[in-house]
Amino acid sequence: MVVFLLSISVSTSYAAGQFRVGDQGSEIAEIQGKLVLLGYDVMADGDFGPATVEAIKDFQRSHGLKVDGLIGPATYTALLGKEMPDISRGANYIARRIVSASMDYIGVPYLFGGTTPSAFDCSGYVQYVFANAGISLPRTADVQYEQGTPVSTAELVAGDLVFFSTYTYGASHVGIYLGDGNFIHASSSRGVTIDSLSTAYYSSRYIGARRIV
To answer: Catalytic: 185?
Structure first.
């Protein structure tokens, strides 16, 4: 049973905010559309994932802006030529927090049975990131696969869990979807890293996804 320790239905708006990894919607699609017109390698799918972060960083670097991959007022105006609007936050705060926090551990080494930032296995990593967002998940990938709501590949949003059958039958590997077809996970060979669902290895072993938040 998934225990929600924090409310996920908060909706608000504030001026001079920032668009960031995990944000979704028409405003993100507009930003991505402009990046596409400028020649950056992104898709205007309204999903602020890793590819959009890298494109924004390149844009910021070329325009003498702070290179952080976030879209604040200065970056927004330089890119779109207009004042940044108030940001309405009806999106899932917890999912965005999970996605953002998940990237803090890139490079942490893999250890079977690892559950802390000194070393993770795949499910230990997912459990740790979700716990820091106030959500309790079971320890292993096969049981995590029984949580939440099943979602199709076409319905994936940032923060969903993606599952694979790797070393044994059933759900034996898990990662966190980031958007743009990418997910972050604790790889047995490279530690916490980002991969694409479309790679031959993972696409052939993908078995489904679950939405926890």
So the answer is: yes
